[in-house]
User: Which sequence fits this backbone?
């Protein structure tokens, strides 16, 4: 994914972006617990069982939020990625708003065209990407969640720790 074009941001977004870029990296102290859950998730994905993939994804997200001491979010795993002629959707984050009391993450486990189960690292990266949106809103309390340099660094740092 390309870095954002900061010059297209509104003044409010620029303020959020500069805060987003200056946040300290996430460092987990109880990494073994998380890596165990990641290993379970990898196994469930290889078995291609949607229900168990969803459950394992939820366990991982819950454990991360619990270690960082903030409210978790519901994870929904769906089968085939939605797509148009140019791209397919890997994941989606819906923040809390007037219609939604709890944030939600959606992740798709099969590619749009061949309907194959996505590679584990790609799946994990998508889950963590959507979790980083949740972090922005609920942990860092930013007014918006933008694809900033800091955002992608957080995503990469978390994934790197999780896969060891
Ligand atoms: Zn995103």
Assistant:
């Amino acid at each position: 994914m390309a870095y954002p074009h900061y010059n297209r941001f509104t003044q409010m977004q620029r303020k959020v972006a500069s805060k987003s870029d200056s946040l300290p990296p996430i460092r987990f102290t109880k990494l073994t617990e998380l890596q165990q859950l990641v290993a379970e998730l990898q196994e469930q994905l290889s078995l291609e069982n949607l229900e168990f993939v969803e459950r394992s994804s939820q366990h991982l997200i819950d454990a991360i939020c619990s270690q960082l001491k903030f409210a978790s979010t519901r994870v929904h795993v769906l089968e085939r990625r939605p797509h148009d002629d140019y791209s397919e959707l890997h994941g989606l984050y819906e923040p809390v708003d007037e219609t939604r009391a709890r944030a939600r993450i959606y992740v798709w486990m099969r590619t749009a065209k061949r309907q194959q189960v996505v590679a584990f690292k790609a799946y994990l990266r998508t889950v963590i990407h959507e979790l980083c949106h949740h972090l922005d809103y609920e942990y860092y309390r930013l007014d918006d969640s933008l694809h900033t340099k800091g955002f992608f660094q957080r995503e990469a740092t978390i994934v790197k720790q999780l896969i060891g």
User: Anything to note?
Assistant: The chain has a mean pLDDT of 94. The longest strand covers residues 74-80. Residues 129, 133, 147 surround zinc ion (CB under 6 Å). Residues 28-163 form one domain.
